[in-house]
Amino acid sequence: MSATTPYAREARTGIPSADELRSRIPGWGADLDPADRPSYPREIDAVPDTAHWHLPEQQEEAWPRERSIEHARLTPVFGTSCPPRGLSGAVRKLAYARYSEARAAHWLLLLAADRIDVKEQAALALLRGRPDDPVTQTGILGERRYHGLSSRRRGHRVDTVHHPLDPVIVGLPWIAGGWAAWRLLRRARR
Amino acid sequence: MNPNATAVGGIYGYSHTTGGYDGGQAELVRVPFADVGPTIIPEWMSDEDALMCTDALPTGYFGAQLGDIAEGDVVTVFGAGPVGLYAAASAWLMGAGRVIVVDHLDDRLELASRFAHAETVNFGQVDDVVVHLKQQTDHLGSDVVIDAVGAEADGNLLQHVTSAKLKLQGGSPIALNWAIDAVRKGGTISVMGAYGPMFSAVKFGDAMNKGLTIRANQCPVKRQWPRLFEHIRNGHLKPSEIVTHRIPLDDIAEGYHLFSAKLDGCIKPVVVPTAA
Ligand SMILES: NC(=O)c1ccc[n+]([C@@H]2O[C@H](COP(=O)([O-])OP(=O)(O)OC[C@H]3O[C@@H](n4cnc5c(N)ncnc54)[C@H](O)[C@@H]3O)[C@@H](O)[C@H]2O)c1
């Protein structure tokens, strides 16, 4: 380090020359000129020339489509594959109708709705006679096939400290659900 | 097109925060704006190279561009997953003088050195990764740092558990905080790692007091293609070299477990519908 200019660019050492880099690394410097980089200039404001529209036609709204209240209007195109249903749907609608994206309540309600949705879908699958299978469908059997233990022991992995939490987070709702069902059953028998 | 939020646009399988479109892994896929989104895969391109062009490769390439790399810059990439590996390889195209990749998984770091010609640091092996990086960079720090880790970052149990497991913050900003500390004063951070919409415990004071430029975005994928295709054709980038596993559709559940738990040296798995 140069003692006089600790934070100047000149203090850098160990940067190979352009010629050396070019000979060692395929394509080195091919995009040196920012004008060759696809993200330059930063913003381009144009309708793609393959489009037949200027503003896309407004898609029909099959239900009052939940949307961020920060938007001036409903976007011309939107997803319809996750219509809000059941309790989770009611919570989602509330989150959108009442709170802007700036409010923690907006996201916390959406998070809660996701959790409720998971439970609703699990119950629905059970009613349909095709209950979720936490053993085959979580892929946990891959532990054996893909060398779970040795994969984790090798090298210097730091994520292994929290791996034991995963079965708890996945398994606890099943255990709690089973326990609750058993309690209900016992109470009904009495 | 995303009515659900004012961020980004529509993304498949990103649920109600990006337009409520389901994921693309299905028998049938609706393609809105089919006159704009898709492109024709060139004859000469292999299927696996084309597959990499849909997400990870353009994201890495874009991440390097957001770093505004100038000739001779020292570029550090946090994360040696597909995005980080491609970002590291792309940094050279923009004239980087040194490229350093940080992760804790040895297989990935090995690929970072072989595939991306980068120097590597295993943060599980050093006491303080920021000090280590400063020592490696004349105690100045890197000119550009790319966060290719995102919300599930490891390296601090409290941060990881409060975000990835308990969802008390929008994401675990460990790599982002390391980036803020490891970059030089006045340097640039490019954030490719994805974070949730809730707040995260980011060291913003340091970012402000160092006069950093922080740039971030979801990758505008299609915009990268023409130039990226040239780089592949010219042999500057060989995207399919990072594919480690080919999973038949019948084994998809175990394949996802392999992928998410990062078992068996998995870096980039590919689902092969006909291989069953
Ligand atoms: N911006 C975009 O358009 C875009 C597109 C695709 C992916 N992404 C995001 O990019 C990120 C990376 O994607 P990926 O597919 O490469 O994921 P990945 O999980 O394969 O890679 C992340 C890597 O980071 C490592 N890591 C964990 N904690 C770290 C830390 N503190 N410091 C350094 N490394 C650490 C992990 O070991 C892993 O190898 C994700 O957040 C993903 O959602 C963004």
TrEMBL record, chain A:
This is Uncharacterized protein. Residues 1-37 are annotated as: Disordered.
